[in-house]
Structures are given as C-alpha cells and as structure tokens.
C-alpha cells in the first residue's frame, strides 16, 4: 500500500493517542472526518493497522520483561517450525521475532520475578532445543520509552517525551474489576465503555471511573497503534549499545541523543550484555546504518560496541501477558 501523506499523519497521530475520534484526528491533521474514517477503515482492512493497545507500566502491575536472544546451529527446519509454534502459543511469550545479525531469534517473556523467568526459559527453550543453541544472551528490561513515529512526517523535534513501558519501584494495588477491565482492553485500545460495562455487569460511570484511576496512577500510560511495517514498505531494526564509560553524565548524553532521533520508536534500558536497546523503523537500511554509525563517531570514548540487527519477521506482539 502506498504510504501517502494522509496515512503517514494518521498513523503518527494514532501512535500518539490511539483513542482519538475521527473528528479529533481530522482536526489534528487538517483534514475531514469522512476522509480520516475512509483511510483508517482501509488501513484496518488491509491489516496495516494490526491493533490498538493501551501501554501499561509493567512494573506497576508486578510484571517484568526478560529477553532471550538465540543463535542456532544445526537446527532442522521442522524443529524450528515446532519451536516457533510452541513459543507463539505460550501465554508467557509476549514478543518474538526472527532477525539477521548476531541472533536468529529474539524472545520476550513477561514474568513476576527472576525465578519464574529461569523456569520458563528452561521449560520453553533449553530443555527441548538446547542442543541446537550455539550461543545466547539474556537481558532484563529496566525501563522503556515508547515514542511516536516522527520519521513519518519528518518531524525535527519530539512532541511527546515517551510513554513509560516498565520502570517503577513499587507495584500498584488494583481491585478485581480493574483487573478484569485490563484483561478486556489489553488488545483493544479503542474500547467502548458501554461494551465493557455490559460484559462486566457494571454501569458505564463505574467503568469510566475505574479506567480514569488507572490512567491517573500511570498504570495505563497511554494508547498506541501497532502496525505491520512490511505492508507500509518499512523495515524494523534493533540496535544494542554497550558502554565502556558508565558514568551517569555520559550515559545521559547517549540517552538524550537516542531519545531525539526520529527513527527511534522504542528505547529500552537493559541489564545484560548491553545497556541500551533501540527499536527503530525506516524505509531503508541506510538510514538506520547511519544512526548506528553516528553513535560510534559521536561517542567514541563512551560507547564500546554498537550491534545492528534487522528484524525480518515479527511473529508475536503483546504488550501485556495473556496470563495476567
């Protein structure tokens, strides 16, 4: 599909707030409600827009993101298909992608703690497929920021600081009705309060009050759109950044540069073999290669290593675990 100017503006605005009405979107992009409705319907029909989701602060719900990066050797094709299908069906795997670079497969598991992660890691991957794993790396997400797709309109500055997907020092307490609301909206960011009320046997005012409380306490950080990058002619990348100077001042310098790069859509602080993990989207490899090159040349005494990976197939994307 042609990623024309109107589509670009719509996708960017939905990435900023996926709950905008057609009228509100039209006002933001200086268009008409009917035109916006037409484009969104087409984007949804062609599955370019995959879904709209709330962004939850995971740690406030007592959930932590653990990632496994795998490189295989001698893995038969039928075994790879079996592994992928088992991971896709697992309620504990929330993100999975094939890549070109250091790693063949990247997996994210959302667990309550490190002991649960160790158990899932062994049960899901290493006990059955360990003989085919040549190398692997594990990282724990400390915090993450989700940004708007500013590259779509060639914006020179960020108009949103980033939704926090992760970090918090304490778990927030929620009641059972709020937990049920979260379960219903985790893959439906454009929910209707009346439908939630009907399904949960509550009145609409109660539903709205409960959701407002989740938003005010930053358990729900905001609402974004998930897209199929390939169908828009976009490519998806990961950049892992390892430091040799770990001082707070130098760390912040690199962090600020990454935050302000228009191609960066997710920025993660990690505990593992690298300190920062970027997710970026662009129409060409060259644009992201330049970003990786700039990091090396701008911060030669701070950054030890920059690894670039091309995501060839994003197999699973969930921002809240099915087991919650």
Report the biggest beta sheet as strand number plus sense, adding barrel if it closes. 8 strands, antiparallel, barrel
Strand fraction equals 25-35%
Based on secondary structure, the structural category is: alpha+beta
- What's the mean pLDDT score? 94
**Spatial ordering of strands, largest sheet:** 2-4-3-11-8-10-9-5
Give the helix level as a range of percent: 25-40%
Can you write the helix and strand succession as a string?
HHHEEHEEHEEHHHEEHEEHE
CATH architect. name of the domain at 59-148 and 229-313: 2-Layer Sandwich
- Unreliable residue runs: none
What is the C-alpha radius of gyration, as a whole number of Å?
20 Å
The third-level CATH topology of the domain at 59-148 and 229-313 is: Alpha-Beta Plaits
Please report the number of helical segments.
Answer: 10
CATH class of the domain at 59-148 and 229-313: Alpha Beta
